[in-house]
Write a structure and sequence with these properties.
The chain crosses the membrane at residues 12-30. This protein is mainly alpha-helical. It has two domains: 1-42; 43-99. It has helices at residues 2-40, 45-51, 53-80, 85-98.
């Protein structure tokens, strides 16, 4: 019985030491990750993309296309008032050929 108590104490000490070591290991690994993050820094993808010279060009082309489509739709609506379905189709075909 004394041996069982002694074995339990030894097992408890071993478990405690292993858990304590694991906690220290985890703590140190998180410290290393934070230090590396501080040195390297996180990349903000939006800043990288917005800083690229072609991004401005793409944004401008997109804006121009939206404006052109809006003008085209307004012109189609203006010319298409009062037309029947066949007339509207012909007008749309004409606009599509011009496009």
């Amino acid at each position: 019985e004394i041996m069982q108590v002694a074995e339990k104490r030894v097992v408890n000490k071993v478990v405690f030491i292993l858990l304590f070591t694991a906690v220290i290991f985890l703590f140190l690994s998180f410290q290393n990750i934070e230090a590396a993050t501080g040195k390297i820094g996180l990349v903000n993808l939006a800043e990288v993309i917005s800083g690229h010279p072609y991004t401005q060009n793409i944004n401008q082309l997109s804006l121009n296309l939206r404006e052109e489509l809006q003008k085209r739709q307004e012109e189609l609506n203006k010319q298409g008032k009062g037309l029947d379905e066949t007339g509207l189709r012909k007008l749309e075909d004409k606009f599509n050929k011009e496009w």
